[in-house]
């Protein structure tokens, strides 16, 4: 694979894992020499743009005894190969996208290999092989029909997608204010209750992650059967969320934040890519500890623009400091703590503060952020 052009070298030099990325590109060329590297500007769903490397080529697919070449392009994120590529079809003027299980109306591909991406176990070579197999089962492109031969069933399918009511016609895909909270425990439950009380949401999904140490709470929500709340253990329930709050945590009181980082990174590997795939236009709000590090991890694993992966920061510590100053100095002024939490978990030394009160204040801040994101 020729990577010597000035444009490719300039873009590739900005990749976080340059040497590993080059090695992976050479592997791709050996197996799929038809995938040609190029450069371009990728536009994310929030209209932000980034200069990236992309692979363009045709995949030969056998279908009903004939060979078809399906044009595709793979956008390689700057954290490649640790982040999966964004895979798109490139239909020509006489082709039409067939929306299905593994492709949406815009031509973006969703495959198990992308959902479960885990480098070095995962690779683009394996992804392309999987892509061919899926295309042979269900071709994602077909030839356009002329206006005279247009299938009348297309009109029936369109009509069946419409809902007639007193207000006129509304499409089923009209966006709603949907928020998903991922991870149980006190923080997850408090976030759910705070969102319901302060934010205007059409639907709230609570997903209790089995691997998280912050389990629990889902049974209570199921018992009370709160309106607009769906309790699930399946990530697919979070699809098309406007905001996704992640409180899942593998931390326990016996571990320091430093020691638990790798455990949380491994936990996130099974959570974040799925959430990003199911809600590609969402804003992620990260509350797992240590929050600054896990926010960076979530950004890398999701492939989302940095403007849409937000950490809760040191809001809790700031609230603690403000509370202590109020008690001891009667200041009634906001105070801010800037920087990562320490191994002693930021416990105040001047005064002991009840955990429930602090948790309530912290989740009020989180819900305040979420309400602004939803509006």
Would you write up a description of this structure?
It is built from twelve helices and 14 strands. The chain has a six-stranded parallel sheet, sandwiched between helices. The chain has 375 residues and is an alpha/beta fold. The protein is globular, with a radius of gyration of 24 Å. About 11% of the residues have low confidence. Helices cover 36% and strands 21% of the residues. Helix 11 packs across helix 12. InterPro entries: L-lactate/malate_DH (IPR001557), Lactate/malate_DH_N (IPR001236), NAD(P)-bd_dom_sf (IPR036291), UBQ-conjugating_enzyme/RWD (IPR016135), UEV_N (IPR008883). GO terms for molecular function: L-lactate dehydrogenase (NAD+) activity. It comes from Dicentrarchus labrax. Pfam families: Ldh_1_N, UEV. This is UEV and lactate/malate dehyrogenase domains.
Task: Please give a handful of descriptors for the protein shown.
four-stranded antiparallel β-sheet; 12 helices; 375 residues; globular; alpha/beta; six-stranded parallel β-sheet
Brief write-up:
GO terms for molecular function: L-lactate dehydrogenase (NAD+) activity. The protein has 375 residues and is an alpha/beta fold.
């Amino acid at each position: 694979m020729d990577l010597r052009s000035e444009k490719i070298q300039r873009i590739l030099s900005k990749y976080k894992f340059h040497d590993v990325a080059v090695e992976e590109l050479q592997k791709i060329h050996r197996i799929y020499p038809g995938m040609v590297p190029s450069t371009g500007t990728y536009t994310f769903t929030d209209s932000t743009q980034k200069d990236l490397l992309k692979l363009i080529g045709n995949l030969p697919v056998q279908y009903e005894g004939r060979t078809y070449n399906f044009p595709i392009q793979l956008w390689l994120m700057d954290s490649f190969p640790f982040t999966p590529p964004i895979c798109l079809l490139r239909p020509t003027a006489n082709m039409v996208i067939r929306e299905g299980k593994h492709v949406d109306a815009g031509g973006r591909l969703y495959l198990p290999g992308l959902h479960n991406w885990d480098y070095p176990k995962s690779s683009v070579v394996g992804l392309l092989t999987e892509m061919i197999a899926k295309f042979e089962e269900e071709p994602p492109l077909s030839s356009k029909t002329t206006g005279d031969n247009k299938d009348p069933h297309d009109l029936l399918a369109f009509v069946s997608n419409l809902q007639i009511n007193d207000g006129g016609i509304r499409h089923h895909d009209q966006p709603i204010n949907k928020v998903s909270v991922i991870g149980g425990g006190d923080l997850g439950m408090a976030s759910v209750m705070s969102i319901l009380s302060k934010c205007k949401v059409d639907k709230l999904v609570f997903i209790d992650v089995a691997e998280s140490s912050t389990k629990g709470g889902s049974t209570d929500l199921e018992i009370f059967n709160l309106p607009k709340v769906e309790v699930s253990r399946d990530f697919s329930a979070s699809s098309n969320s406007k905001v996704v709050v992640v409180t899942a945590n593998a931390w326990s009181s016996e571990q320091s934040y430093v020691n638990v980082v790798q455990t949380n990174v491994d936990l996130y590997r099974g959570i974040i890519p799925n959430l990003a795939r199911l809600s590609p236009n969402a804003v992620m709000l990260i509350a797992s500890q240590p929050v600054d590090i896990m926010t960076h991890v979530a950004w890398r694993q999701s492939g989302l623009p940095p403007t849409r992966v937000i950490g809760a920061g040191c809001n809790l510590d700031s609230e603690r400091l403000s509370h202590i100053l109020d008690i001891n100095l009667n200041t009634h002024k906001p105070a801010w703590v800037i920087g990562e939490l320490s191994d002693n978990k930021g416990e105040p030394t001047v005064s002991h503060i009840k955990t429930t009160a602090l948790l309530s204040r912290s989740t009020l801040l989180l819900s305040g952020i979420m309400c602004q994101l939803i509006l």
